[in-house]
Amino acid sequence: MTETTGEGGTAWGSRAVRATVEAYWAAVNARDWGALAAMLTDDVVYDLPQSRERVLGKERYVRFSRARPEDRHVRIERIVADGEGGRGGGVAARTTVMAGSQELSAVHFFTFDARGRIAGVTDFWREPYETPAGREHLTERY
Predict the structure, then answer these.
(1) How far from chain centre, in Å, is Cα 98?
(2) What element of type H or E holds 80?
(3) Residue 66, beta-bridge partner list
(4) Contact 18/39 with Cβ under 8 angstroms?
(5) With contact defined as beta carbons under 8 Å apart, do 81 and 18 qualify?
(6) Whole-angstrom distance, CA of residue 139 vs CA of residue 124
(7) Which residues sit opposite 4 in a β-bridge?
(8) Do 15 and 81 touch, CB atoms closer than 8 A?
(9) What's the pTM?
(10) CA-CA distance, 51 to 128, in Å (whole number)?
């Protein structure tokens, strides 16, 4: 395992970033928006390449997440963590998302800042989809 020294001399590596991603999904499933926000940098970037949407900043990202259906639940299938990727660490996660009776597969890439907070999330969904209406005020198109 690779360890990286962050601000204040704190060592963290692949185990730490993996634990952060596990805590991230636990917060999403519990709809614990305060816990989710605590894991994010203020300038977090959330990308959805299939819909060409981007959410900039912690406040918008939490609002975006909050707007998702309440019956949505994420099950982690696999996590691969690297203490050196991105801006201090990187994680790829494969998940199954249950939304009502639908079961969707996705792959998510996370990057981190020097303090181990999530700086970026990119979601790739197996099936293409149209941009849902009603979230234009939180996203930018690219």
Answers:
(1) 17
(2) strand 72-82
(3) none
(4) no
(5) yes
(6) 16
(7) 12
(8) yes
(9) 0.82
(10) 8
